Amino acid sequence: MQATRDLLRTFGLFKTLSDSDLELLCSKSFVRRYERRAVILNAGVSENKICMLFEGRLQGIDFTIDGKEVGLYFVEPGDYCGELCVFDSGLQPEHVISLNSSVVVIFSSETMREVAERNPTVMLQLGNKLARRIRQMNAQRSLLSLPKVSQRVCRQLWLLIAKTDAEKTPDIENLPTHMEIAIMLNLSRETITRVFQQLQRKQIVSRVGPNKLLINQPEILRGIAEGTRDL
């Protein structure tokens, strides 16, 4: 099934495109639903496709030398992955999997490059996304080197906090599961659960439903994350 113009307009990347470019993208697209844990992009091969997430949640993952799965980043609805292939024809650097049932709009790298070359705003957004991804992955790599487990978990939570109004309590929407956080930090799910129990017992954080985490004492959380406080 091909995408429609209305569907493509839900993505920020395409907000400024002309009707003719949207029609081109529609004609060259296909929409696919992936089940949980399905592989969207494979590492080590020339995928040459960019994937726009309309519904669900994706995760970029890699594997350590001893075969442990490590989470690198999440892809939320309205976001995309695989953009590196727009700039070169190299191999896909990491696997991307679906964390739940997901609807993805897929374009070839050639189609996206053609549209981006005519639209500097799109090209700039693609470049900015790559820069953010590099910064994020560098931060994730340094996080894995932290010796204290509690510091590692709190640093990960601090990185997940969305920028909010200073007058409001900071929070994390769409909080990853304990298993997903464990994969990101190369730890066990049980270890993550124990740290969360300590944070909640001391009322540093609290849960609101299954997917939202309130940060009740951000300065304490930040202190633990930076290694100036102990949990």
Structure description:
It contains eight helices and eleven strands. Strands 1-8-3-6 form a four-stranded antiparallel beta sheet. A four-stranded antiparallel beta sheet has the order 2-7-4-5. Strands 9-11-10 form a three-stranded antiparallel beta sheet. It has helices spanning 5-8, 19-28, 109-118, 120-144, 149-160, 178-185, 189-201, 218-226, and strands at residues 30-34, 39-41, 49-55, 58-63, 69-75, 80-81, 95-98, 102-108, 171-172, 205-208, 212-215. The protein is elongated, with a radius of gyration of 19 Å. It is an alpha+beta fold. A hairpin with a 5-residue loop joins strand 4 (58-63) and strand 5. Helix 6 crosses helix 7 (189-201). It folds into two domains: 5-144, Jelly Rolls; 149-226, Winged helix-like DNA-binding domain superfamily/Winged helix DNA-binding domain (Arc Repressor Mutant, subunit A). The termini are far apart.
End-to-end CA span: 51 Å
In the predicted model, the low-confidence regions spanning at least 5 consecutive residues are none
Overall CATH architecture of the largest domain:
Sandwich
Helix content: 25-40%
N-to-C SSE string, H for helix and E for strand: HHEEEEEEEEHHHEHHEEH
| Sheet of most strands | 4 strands, antiparallel
Mean pLDDT: 90
Strand line-up across the major sheet: 1-8-3-6
